[in-house]
Write a sequence for this structure.
C-alpha cells in the first residue's frame, strides 16, 4: 500500500501558508489505493480513502518567504529620534558660531573683545564703550549684514525644498515662480523713474514688483489649475516676460551709473542690509518657515504625485496654493532686500536631502540651518576675496554652488 504524493496546491498549503488568510486547523486527506497492483479488480473497484492526520503548520506572527531571511527588528523610535535632535543641536551651535565669526571678518579687523563690548553696551551692561566709528561699524553695518545673510539663506533654502516637492522638479528653485524677475523689474523701475533712490525706495519697489509677478502667475493658472507642469511652465513664461521688461527699462535709461548700480543689485548683495529691513525679514521668515514645516506631511505626499497625495486625504489644490503663497512671500521679501542670489535654493536642499533623507519634517529645519550657514560664510568670502572691493554675493554662490552641486550628483550616482 503506497500513498500518492499530494497535489501542487496541497504542497503549497503545507509548506507556505497564505499570509492573507488565517491558517485553518484542518485534516489533510491523502488518497490510498486498495488492491494489489495489476489485479483484475483494480480498474473496477472503488477507491477507498482514509484520513491521514498531519499537524497544521505553525502560525508565526510574520510570514517568512521561502529562500528569504527574516528582516531584522526595527530599532526603537526613541533611539532613532535622538540622532536627528543631536544633529539639530549641533547645527544650531554651528550657526551661532558662524554668526559671531562672520562679524569679525572684513577689511577692518574686529576682535572678540570689541564685539563683546558693543553687544554689552547695547544690552545695558557696565562696559567701556567703543569709539563711535568702530561701534557704528559693528552695530550698524556688520551685525545687520550677518543676520540678514542668515535669514535670507534660510528662506531661500526652505523655498527651494518646498518647490522641488510641489512641482516634482529637481531643478526647481525659489525663482521658479517669476517672483525674482518681478522684484528686479520693480526695483529697476523705481530707480530709473526716480520715485525713490534710497534703499527703502528700492526695497519697496522690488516688493511690489514681486507681488505683482506672483499675482500674474495665479491669474494665468486660474483656469488651467495648479498642476505641477503648468506651474513650472507658467513660472518660466512670467519670469522671461519680466526679465525682458527689466532689460527694456535699463536700455531706456541710458545712464551708465544707474545701469552699473542696478546690475550690482541684481547680482545680490548684503551691503544694503539695515536694522529696519532685518526686522521685516525676522518677522516674515519664521512665520513662513513654520507654515512650510506644518505642511511637512503634505509635502511628503506631493513628492509622489497628485494622485498619491489625494489618496492620502491631502487637499492637493489648497495645499499647493498655500505653499505657493508662502514661498512667494519669502522669496519676495528676500529678493526685495538683498537682490537675487542664485544657487542657494537649488544646491542646499539637495545636499541636505542627501545627508538626512527626504522626509520634510526633518529636511526643512536642516535646510534652513544649512542655508543660513552657507550664505553667512559666502557673504564673508565676498567681503574679503577681492578686498578692498566687494564682490556681489550672488557671484560667489554661483562659483561655489556649481562644483558642490556636481559633487552631490556624483555622490548620488546621477553623474
Amino acid at each position: 500500500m503506497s500513498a500518492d504524493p499530494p497535489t501542487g496546491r496541497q504542497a503549497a498549503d503545507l509548506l507556505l501558508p497564505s499570509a492573507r488568510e488565517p491558517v485553518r486547523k484542518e485534516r489533510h486527506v491523502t488518497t490510498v489505493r486498495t488492491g494489489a497492483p495489476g489485479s483484475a479488480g483494480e480498474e473496477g473497484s472503488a477507491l477507498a480513502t482514509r484520513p491521514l492526520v498531519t499537524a497544521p503548520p505553525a502560525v508565526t506572527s510574520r510570514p517568512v518567504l521561502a529562500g528569504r531571511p527574516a528582516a531584522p527588528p526595527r530599532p526603537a523610535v526613541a533611539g532613532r529620534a535622538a540622532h536627528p535632535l543631536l544633529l539639530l543641536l549641533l547645527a544650531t551651535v554651528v550657526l551661532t558660531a558662524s554668526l559671531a565669526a562672520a562679524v569679525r571678518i572684513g577689511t577692518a579687523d574686529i576682535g572678540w573683545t570689541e564685539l563683546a563690548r558693543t553687544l554689552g553696551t547695547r544690552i545695558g551692561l557696565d562696559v567701556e564703550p567703543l569709539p563711535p566709528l568702530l561701534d557704528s561699524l559693528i552695530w550698524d553695518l556688520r551685525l545687520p549684514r550677518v543676520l540678514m545673510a542668515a535669514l535670507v539663506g534660510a528662506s531661500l533654502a526652505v523655498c527651494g525644498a518646498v518647490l522641488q516637492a510641489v512641482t516634482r522638479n529637481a531643478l526647481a528653485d525659489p525663482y521658479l515662480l517669476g517672483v525674482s524677475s518681478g522684484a528686479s523689474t520693480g526695483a529697476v523701475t523705481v530707480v530709473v523713474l526716480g520715485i525713490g533712490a534710497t534703499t527703502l525706495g528700492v526695497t519697496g519697489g522690488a516688493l511690489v514688483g514681486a507681488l505683482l509677478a506672483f499675482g500674474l502667475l495665479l491669474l494665468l493658472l486660474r483656469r488651467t489649475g495648479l498642476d505641477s507642469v503648468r506651474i513650472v511652465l507658467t513660472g518660466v513664461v512670467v519670469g522671461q516676460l519680466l526679465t525682458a521688461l527689466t532689460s527694456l527699462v535699463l536700455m531706456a535709461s541710458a545712464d551708465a551709473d544707474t545701469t552699473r548700480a542696478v546690475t550690482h543689485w541684481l547680482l545680490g548683495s548684503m551691503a544694503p542690509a539695515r536694522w529696519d529691513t532685518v526686522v521685516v525679514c525676522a518677522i516674515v521668515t519664521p512665520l513662513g518657515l513654520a507654515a512650510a514645516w506644518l505642511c511637512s506631511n503634505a509635502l511628503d505626499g506631493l513628492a509622489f504625485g497628485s494622485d498619491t497625495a489625494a489618496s492620502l486625504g491631502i487637499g492637493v489644490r489648497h495645499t499647493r496654493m498655500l505653499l505657493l503663497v508662502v514661498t512667494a512671500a519669502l522669496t519676495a521679501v528676500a529678493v526685495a532686500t538683498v537682490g537675487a542670489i542664485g544657487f542657494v535654493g537649488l544646491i542646499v536642499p539637495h545636499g541636505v536631502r542627501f545627508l538626512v533623507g527626504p522626509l520634510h519634517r526633518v529636511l526643512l529645519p536642516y535646510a534652513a540651518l544649512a542655508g543660513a550657514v552657507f550664505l553667512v560664510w559666502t557673504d564673508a568670502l565676498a567681503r574679503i576675496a577681492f578686498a578692498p572691493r566687494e564682490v556681489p554675493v550672488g557671484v560667489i554662490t554661483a562659483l561655489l554652488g556649481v562644483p558642490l552641486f556636481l559633487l552631490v550628483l556624483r555622490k548620488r550616482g546621477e553623474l
About this structure: Strands lie at 29-31, 49-51. The radius of gyration is 33 Å. Residues 132-167 form the longest helix (36 residues).
